[in-house]
Design goal:
single chain, 280 residues, Rossmann fold, 5-stranded parallel β-sheet, binds iron/sulfur cluster
Length: 280
């Protein structure tokens, strides 16, 4: 009689796949350029898409899943009362919240209106239909923010680093140094020293690869202030090169008017101008 065959081993019950962390991308008042940077990540985006569940990213899909979210990435500034409420809901539903770009971290170009009168009647035929706040403010003025990534738009490499770091539970490795460091590393000729061209590179956050000096232009500060910028020293140097108070105020206000170090430098230049007018 043939020996009894052992019963075939039963396949182990399939383990449920581990839950992937959820990523949500939100737009507030902005041009979408920073979201496009994320879409332009191409190869890296496929890796991200494979390791996270994208719960909301209206630039890429109309699907919006309900929270909670492991990581929310926020583009844009707060310019309406409804957005001031919406960001609170986003914050409440998010474990980490990162703001990306000059709009979200410093009010953006639209923050110029913080320093002007009401321009709506000049621009629109029916300003009574405009429902916006008088100011454009950074997201951090409204809710706690875990990390602010500067740029207009943000750098692709820095954006990938911030997303990967926070999803891994570590601190993003984004240095707070100035554009000058990138400029020197790339071996560029300094347009300020060699050409006397006013440049905001010494006080501006690195990340763009010193694009403007690469084409012979001074940096105009679109990445916003670096860590601990010495705006007083740079303002004094600009004055030696012939810049007056209004030129300094315009330079420090252009992209990141609501970023405190640049706002203070713009205000100091305006005050100095007013004081010199009084003494004339
Ligand atoms: S920071 Fe610049 S690129 Fe990004 S959304 Fe604002 S205006 Fe657009
Ligand atoms: S060109 Fe501007 S950014 Fe480059 S080293 Fe000179 S001051 Fe710095
Ligand atoms: S303005 Fe300054 S920070 Fe912006 S791209 Fe040019 S060099 Fe870079």
């Amino acid at each position: 009689m043939a020996p009894a065959r052992p019963a075939p081993a039963r396949p182990a019950p399939a383990r449920p796949a581990p839950e992937r962390p959820t990523l949500a991308v939100w737009k507030f008042a902005s041009c979408d350029g920073c979201q496009l940077t994320l879409l332009n990540c191409e190869d890296e985006l496929l890796a991200i898409a494979g390791s996270v569940r994208v719960a909301s990213f209206t630039e890429a899909s109309t699907l919006v899943e309900p929270g909670p979210y492991d990581l929310s990435v926020v583009e844009g500034s707060i310019t309406t009362a409804s957005d001031a409420q919406r960001i609170k809901r986003v914050r409440a539903a998010s474990r980490y919240l990162v703001t990306i770009g000059a709009c979200a971290t410093a009010g953006g170009i639209q923050a110029l209106r913080n320093f002007t009168g009401d321009l709506a009647p000049v621009v629109y035929a029916h300003p009574e239909y405009i429902r916006s706040l008088r100011t454009s403010t950074p997201i951090a003025d409204h809710v706690p923010v875990d990390f602010e990534l500067r740029g207009c738009p943000v750098s692709k490499e820095q954006l990938i680093e911030v997303i990967a770091a926070l999803l891994a539970g570590r601190r993003p490795n984004v240095r707070g140094h100035s554009v000058c460091i990138e400029c020197k590393r790339a071996g560029r000729t300094c347009v300020l020293v060699a050409g006397g061209t006013p440049c905001l590179g010494p006080v501006t956050q690195a990340g763009c690869g010193a694009l403007c000096p690469a084409v012979g232009r001074g940096c105009y500060g679109c990445f916003g202030p670096m860590e601990s910028p010495n705006t007083a020293a740079l303002s004094a140097r600009w004055r030696e090169l012939g810049a007056d108070g209004p030129a300094l105020t315009r330079a420090f206000s252009a992209f990141t008017a609501a970023a405190e170090p640049f706002r203070a430098a713009a205000a100091a230049a305006a005050d100095e101008e007013a004081a010199s007018d009084d003494s004339r």
